[in-house]
DNA sequence: GTACTAACTGACTAGTCAGTCAGTTTGGAA
DNA sequence: TTCCAAACTGACTGACTAGTCAGTTAGTAC
């Protein structure tokens, strides 16, 4: 049995619960019972509930950054446009494969805490910077190789694409429409939005 | 003094609090003290806290539907494309002017309740139907008058545009970027995405 | 005035929750 | 074995919350 198994069990159970039920609706007792430990044990590893949440966010940040850097180490792209569309598709894929991560990023508490807790704010900014920079880099590359419309502001367009992808992920998890059917259409729409039409 | 002033005061205070603090983090005591009434009075007008929330959602639904129908009664458009872009701009405008409405629509509790409460679900569907239908109608019109790309599925594209607009509104309220600066860019991006390029 | 009802209230209850603390268990070093 | 610190625990507390209820007030019809 690995040494820090209980601490990491707490972390992963807390991730799941904070993501699916939210901060306030998740009780420490619940986290403890899911991790099969005594309630007080959590407070040995994490000073407060807020502290636990920030640790969860840190692990999410680490996960997201790692996944994206792995992806871009392995993949090769024929153009900036293809790289952008690949990044969008990978973002959508990650949001399905690691649903809790992106659920947590949609929780209001995350942003409310970021206002008063600088560490939380830093992790959040790191995550968004990672996501936006990938899109921006692809757009820059595409403007150089001619696959992306030259008139675009790459920064602003990167933000709009991020908002678009997030919006679709959100629409899906709202259970009102089956947005999964929209993933293909989203890629096509992105292409129409940024490609260099001659 | 109008007859139902206390009930409607409760409703508007609850709207504000549920939207900005969320359902769980808003206590009935808090609503009561903001409305300057005794705590028990709320339970005279609304059976439970959940009942109050559903009433709040109903008033938001009524407000959104009314605002959009007013807008389209007054405005005239030269093409389907212009109508679409006008609707997007008006959506963005409403999200600023009636911030609580759209904050409430981003709260997780709203969608969690919709799973178990059919009335809540109905109001939510009414709101989304209203928003999507406007975009879809504009796209249909644009395909007829030639201003919109004929290859588009108007339904799917309407959903994507809604996701995009919601995503931008969300990005703004997250306090990480000043997305207000993106409103103009968003309209331009929408145009590029759907216009009929010859 | 009287009678009646709708609107309203203060005091209360039963339950939940984050966090504390004094004490026990565990694992490894000497 | 002995010792020690880190890991862990059960029992507790004070603060807070949704909802109840018996009773009071305000408005209206006669």
Automatic annotation (TrEMBL), chains A, B:
Gene Ontology MF terms in the entry: DNA binding
Leader sequence residues: 1-19
Pfam families linked: TetR_N (PF00440)
PROSITE patterns: HTH_TETR_1 (PS01081), HTH_TETR_2 (PS50977)
Domain HTH tetR-type residues, every copy: 4-64
Record key words, sorted: DNA-binding, Signal, Transcription, Transcription regulation
DNA-binding region: 27-46
SUPFAM superfamilies named among the record's database cross-references: Homeodomain-like, Tetracyclin repressor-like, C-terminal domain
PANTHER family reported in the protein's UniProt record: HTH-TYPE TRANSCRIPTIONAL REPRESSOR NEMR, TRANSCRIPTIONAL REGULATORY PROTEIN
Name of the protein: AcrR family transcriptional regulator
Lineage start: Bacteria, Pseudomonadati, Thermodesulfobacteriota, Desulfobulbia, Desulfobulbales
């Amino acid at each position: 049995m690995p040494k820090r198994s209980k601490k990491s069990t707490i972390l992963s159970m807390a991730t799941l619960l904070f993501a699916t039920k939210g901060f306030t609706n998740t009780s420490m007792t619940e986290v403890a019972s899911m991790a099969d430990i005594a309630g007080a044990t959590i407070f040995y590893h994490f000073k407060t509930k807020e502290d636990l949440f920030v640790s969860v966010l840190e692990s999410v940040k680490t996960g997201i950054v790692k996944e994206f850097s792995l992806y871009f180490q392995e993949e090769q792209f024929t153009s900036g446009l293809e790289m952008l569309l690949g990044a969008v598709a990978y973002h959508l894929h990650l949001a399905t494969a690691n649903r809790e991560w992106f659920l947590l990023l949609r929780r209001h508490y995350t942003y409310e805490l970021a206002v008063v807790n600088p560490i939380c704010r830093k992790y959040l900014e790191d995550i968004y910077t990672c996501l936006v920079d990938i899109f921006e880099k692809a757009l820059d590359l595409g403007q150089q190789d001619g696959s992306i419309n030259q008139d675009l502001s790459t920064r602003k367009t990167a933000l709009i694409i991020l908002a678009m992808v997030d919006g679709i992920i959100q629409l899906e998890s709202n259970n009102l429409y089956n947005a999964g059917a929209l993933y293909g259409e989203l890629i096509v729409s992105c292409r129409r939005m940024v490609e260099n039409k001659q």
